[in-house]
Design brief:
The complex is a heterotrimer of chains A (about 325), B (about 170) and C (about 525).
Chain A lengths: L1 H14 L7 E5 L6 H15 L6 E5 L6 H11 L5 E6 H9 L10 E16 L7 H10 L5 E4 L5 H12 L8 E4 L5 H7 L5 E5 H9 L3 E6 L23 E8 L5 H16 L1 H10 L2 E6 H22 L4
Parallel strand pairs in A: 1-2, 1-3, 5-6, 5-7
Antiparallel strand pairs in A: 3-9, 4-7, 4-8, 4-9, 4-10
Helix pairs in contact in A: 4-11, 6-11
Chain B lengths: L12 H22 L14 H22 L12 H20 L1 H15 L5 H22 L8 H16 L1
Chain C lengths: L1 H13 L2 H18 L6 H12 L4 H26 L8 H12 L3 H35 L3 H15 L7 H15 L2 E2 L6 E2 L13 H19 L1 H5 L13 H23 L5 H15 L12 H24 L5 H12 L8 H4 L1 H30 L6 H19 L4 E3 L2 E3 L1 H18 L5 H23 L11 H22 L4 H9 L2
Helix pairs in contact in C: 1-16, 2-3, 2-4, 2-16, 3-4, 3-14, 4-5, 4-6, 4-16, 5-6, 5-13, 6-11, 6-13, 6-16, 7-12, 7-19, 7-20, 8-19, 9-17, 9-18, 11-12, 11-13, 12-13
The chains are: A alpha/beta (about 325), B mainly alpha (about 170), C mainly alpha (about 525).
Pfam families (chain A): TctC (PF03401)
Family (chain A): Belongs to the UPF0065 (bug) family.
Protein name (chain A): C4-dicarboxylate ABC transporter substrate-binding protein
Chain lengths: ~325, ~170, ~525
């Protein structure tokens, strides 16, 4: 039985087309994580839709993606078959870890998906609206505990931007960092903290079930089918989206860049990609070329500003 | 396990070295932690508290280890051979440095043969090819079959192009 | 009894012949990959998950359940036979299990692990099916202060794995705590003890440390020590099966392990490793043969293995009812569930009733299949020990490095030379593992320190941050107080037992300290 299966695996391995590799995608995260899933979804769709013959994924986890990024920049220089997946978290991590390699060292191709960060409170919290939260924060910033992901990540940045926007000193926020995997969600549901900030996807089912009250979301626009204002609508002038992107190697020619752009565009339009997004609950925020580069520069500047304010970057 | 009657009651040099190493680790933690910039946090227990606790603990343990060493109360040790150590550590180092230029199969094949040598099996003309074939088989199952990212080198590339020309040409 | 009907319906579907074949394939694949030294269940599931995508939802669910259980059981097999745990939860299994295997009792050790896992899996899956909503409410009531109390309890129980000297045990623990400090501090984002090496920013990977200390350290020790090298391990001495005595000593341990493992697994910050530590210490305290602990006590395999499996089912409680993945394996499973169209969360049981019950039924069937497949194979597994040492250990090192480099393909370049930093760590810790063995230091507390140290620190600091620095919060909840009382008992019970003259080993521990 064992040998049979092994034989099947091996023949399966050999049966794959083994021409020149069309793309190697680096996921700067461990197998199973968000960026890894993005990379593997791209791999699957590119292959299934016949856009690329053979796509490989490599995992280089660590330090918010900066380890993978540094390796990518070193190794992929001028190689049009190398891609890297990344996201907003990387922007913050590059700043806080003082990474010698930044996103300026790669060729950004396109933003693929984006997730609003949601601000929630437990259902039995006295805080009903964003105004209540702002009032509580102004009264005693220390008494409002914010639960979210690791210090310096998107959730922490949002809490800082929020405080700044309502005129509270961002260094005074009482931010409690939880390691990933929804530990923060447990603390919010258990009423251990005042308010929670995390990607909307992590809270969605709890919000639908009425266990959590969604005060606002951080994106540009409201989410379809979700009854909550954006932070800007609620009077807090903050927009933040936790996006994921794909980038190419540094030093490739404009023609090569255009070719990759065309492949990614074809992928995004394919049914396979759209089905995969729907299956995983990812929101399509495709933005390519110069528009994406401009958006990226803006995000980096804003993030740098707030991280300095909070004191995470000198 | 230890027969306590056999314990030699004289200072144990190696154990004193252990005590010294613990003291050095404690000192490094103290020194590195003292360099950290302390930010005021609501918890009052900041990022430097635990390092100081651990460093203090290690310093105390270092003293106790030294005392125990002077009393010779460490368990008796047999005399270990060092030859196998060099083979196996050498094999791991060889694999580490050859992994990227030569690929997983060759590097791991060398580790395989050198580990076997550490255990007294020195017929390299046999163990090296066996190791490389074994590692290539693992590479095939894991890297090709299960999409685990393992470094590939000239051997893997040559084998794959051979396979593809065989299946493509037929 | 709507729940019961739904479960029956799920079971009927899962018992179709084709489904049984899928379950068998899943269990076989999971065991085959999981049994490789240095490859733990998380990596096994991540690697094999795509294999299930090609089937229909019901088929892929059941194959997935098989892979999950197979991967976990496969890990215990190498822990017991070769002293090479692939993940933190099987470390305790290696403690007693490998001692048993060395004495030719590998068969009974594997059998008690398999049957214990089956019983724990069965009970825990049924608990999952019927009382998940209540368990999850209890688990959510745990705040950071309560978790800190749980960590204190876990720290005290580590002393059970200290071996014959408290000084060396505590030193090993502190080495682990020191390693746990390395990396970015979660609460403030500051870097500690990384010495400017970017690869250290995320801290030391528990798997790397465990594989290095056990697999590599053990290999070096066996190769270098003249007595170890000559030692002929007899694969089977006496019966390959459990004797009546073994059954008598195992059944209560299985049950205790189950009831320790399930609730701890269900806690968002619990985990199978903590459950297995607590179970080991409980077995040591309850055993009628405490003197056998450290020399191959069957309870020390039966309890932790049951706890490990029950905790894995417990992990499904927050995963299914809250969508909370609390372990690396669970995070990968969540991705898998989404592939099947399952959206974990409070509405899951209402919205996806058929699929959930199909999953639960699949777990039950896969669990049974594991037993059916592996009990007859025990005789074969044990023969792993008869492979000549040069080839056996050459193979172990090949797989240990495969698991490490496969999970982390980062390349470091210094002076134009490329190498894997993770493999360098593996080598360094491997040598540490050899030295610890050579000088009579226990290994398990190092890994325990690395796991528990950062957890305890983070929970304490969270609790104090929420209370704005008021330490009274640590003793404010009844749960925390109960845990401190249990911790005090765990500390005092051995003293009490010693006063009654029951544990010669414990007595020896005391004289060692004079």
């Amino acid at each position: 039985m064992n040998k049979l299966l092994l034989a099947a695996l091996v023949t399966g391995a050999l049966a794959q087309p083994v021409f020149a590799q069309d793309y190697t995608i680096m996921a700067p995260a461990a197998p199973g994580g968000g960026w890894d899933q993005t990379a593997r979804t791209i791999q699957q769709v590119l292959q299934d839709e016949g856009i690329a013959g053979n796509v490989q994924v490599t995992n280089v986890p660590g330090a918010g993606g900066t380890i993978g990024l540094a390796q990518f920049v070193n190794q992929a220089q001028g190689n049009p078959s190398q891609l890297i997946v990344g996201g907003y978290v990387m922007v913050g991590a590059i700043l806080t870890n003082q990474s010698p390699v930044t996103l300026d060292n790669v060729t950004p191709i396109a933003r693929l998906t984006g997730e609003s960060v949601a601000v929630v409170v437990p259902a039995n919290s006295p805080i009903q609206t964003i105004d209540d939260l702002t009032a509580a924060l102004k009264e005693n910033p220390g008494a409002v505990s914010w639960a979210g992901g690791s210090a310096g990540g998107a959730d922490h940045i949002l809490a800082g931007l929020y405080a700044q926007a309502v005129g509270v000193d961002p260094t005074q926020i009482n931010y409690i960092a939880f390691s990933g995997g929804g530990e923060a969600l447990a603390a919010i549901l258990g009423g251990q903290v005042t308010v929670g900030v995390s990607g909307y996807g992590e809270f969605a089912s709890q919000v639908e079930a009425g266990e959590l009250r969604l005060l606002a979301i951080s994106g540009q626009n409201r989410l379809e089918g979700v009854d909550a204002p954006t932070l800007s609508e609620a009077g807090v002038d903050v927009v933040l989206e936790n996006w994921r992107m794909v980038a190419a190697a540094p030093g490739i020619t404009p023609e090569q860049e255009a070719e990759i752009n065309a492949d990614i565009a074809a992928m995004v339009e394919s049914d396979g990609w759209q089905t995969a997004l729907a299956d995983r609950g990812w929101v399509d925020t495709y933005l390519a070329g110069d528009e994406f580069k401009a958006q990226l520069a803006e995000d980096i500047a804003a993030t740098d500003g707030i991280l300095r304010q909070i004191g995470l970057v000198q | 396990m230890t027969d306590r009657a056999n314990v030699t009651r004289r200072p144990d040099g190696a154990a004193l070295v252990i005590a010294a190493v613990l003291a050095v680790i404690a000192a490094v933690i103290f020194w590195q932690t003292a360099q950290m910039r302390v930010v005021a946090v609501y918890a009052r227990v900041g990022p430097t508290t635990f390092p100081y606790i651990v460093a203090t603990g290690l310093a105390v343990l270092s003293v106790l280890t030294a005392l125990s060493a002077l009393r010779g109360s460490f368990p008796a040790r047999e005399k270990d051979n060092h030859g196998p150590m060099f083979w196996i550590v050498g094999g791991l180092l060889a694999q580490m440095f050859l992994m990227f230029p030569l690929g997983f199969s060759v590097a791991t094949g060398i580790l395989f043969a050198m580990t076997a040598a550490g255990f007294g099996q020195r017929r390299f003309w046999f163990s090296l090819p066996v190791g490389i074939v074994f590692a290539f088989f693992i590479w095939l199952v894991f890297a090709r079959g299960l999409q685990l990212s393992l470094p590939s080198g000239p051997l893997e590339a040559a084998a794959m192009s051979l396979f593809s020309s065989m299946s493509g040409g037929a | 009894m709507g729940t019961f009907d739904l479960l029956l319906q799920g079971l009927m579907a899962a018992l179709e012949p084709m489904m049984l074949v899928y379950a068998l394939i899943g269990v076989t694949l999971g065991t085959a990959v999981g049994v490789l030294p240095g490859i733990g269940p998380a990596l096994t599931v991540a690697l094999l998950l795509p294999v299930t995508y090609r089937l229909d939802p019901a088929g892929s669910l059941i194959m997935f359940a098989g892979i999950y259980y197979g991967g976990m059981y496969g890990g215990s097999t190498t822990s017991i036979l070769l002293n090479t745990p692939g993940e933190s939860a099987s470390i305790v299994t290696a403690l007693e299990g490998n001692k048993m295997a060395r004495k030719g009792r590998g068969g009974p050790a594997l059998a008690t692990a398999a049957i214990g896992s089956f019983i724990a899996g069965l009970i825990a899956t049924l608990l999952l099916a019927f009382i998940a909503p209540w368990v999850v409410r209890f688990a959510l009531s745990f705040g950071p202060a309560d978790y800190f109390a749980l960590m204190v309890l876990a720290f005290i129980t580590v002393s059970a794995a200290f071996g014959d000297s408290a000084l060396r045990g505590i030193t090993a623990l502190f080495i682990g705590l020191g390693l746990g400090l390395i990396g970015i501090d979660l609460q403030t984002g500051q870097t500690r003890l990384a010495f400017g090496i970017p690869d250290l920013l995320d801290g030391i990977e528990v798997t790397t440390l465990a594989v290095a200390l056990f697999a590599i350290g053990e290999t070096l020790k066996v190769a270098c020590s003249p007595t170890h090298l000559k030692e002929e391990v007899e694969a089977i001495k006496g019966s390959v099966w459990m004797t009546i005595e073994d059954w008598k000593r195992s059944w209560a341990s299985w049950l205790r392990g189950t009831f320790i493992g399930f609730p701890i697994g269900a806690m968002p910050a619990g985990g199978a490793d903590v459950a297995s530590f607590l179970s080991y210490s409980a077995e040591r305290n309850f055993s009628k043969h405490p003197e056998e602990f450290g020399e191959g006590a069957i309870e020390g395999v039966a309890g932790p293995e049951a706890a490990n499996n029950a905790s894995a089912a417990g992990t499904l409680v927050p995963l299914l009812t809250l969508g909370l993945p609390t372990t690396a394996t669970a995070a990968i499973m969540l991705a898998g569930f989404q592939q099947f169209g399952l959206q974990p969360g409070p509405l899951l049981f209402a919205n996806n009733a058929t699929l959930v019950w199909a999953l639960i039924a699949s777990l039950l069937v896969a669990n049974l299949m594991l037993l059916v497949l592996n009990l007859p194979l025990i005789g074969l597994w044990v023969r792993l020990l008869t492979i000549p040492k040069p080839w056996l250990y050459a193979g172990i090192l090949s797989f240990a490095t495969l698991g490490t480099i496969g999970a982390n393909a980062a390349v470091m370049r210094i002076w134009g030379v490329s190498f894997s930093f993770e493999l360098l760590l593996l080598l360094a810790f491997g040598i540490l593992g050899y030295l610890l063995r050579r000088f009579g230091y226990p290994i398990a507390p190092v890994v325990v320190g690395l796991i528990l140290g950062p957890m305890a620190e983070q929970q304490l600091r969270r609790a104090l941050a929420i209370s704005q620095g008021d330490p009274a919060v640590l003793f404010a909840s009844p749960v925390a107080i109960v845990l401190y009382v249990v911790a005090a008992l765990a500390l005092l019970l051995p003293v009490f037992l010693r006063l009654r003259g029951r544990g010669q080993l414990l007595g020896q521990l005391a004289t060692d300290e004079d």
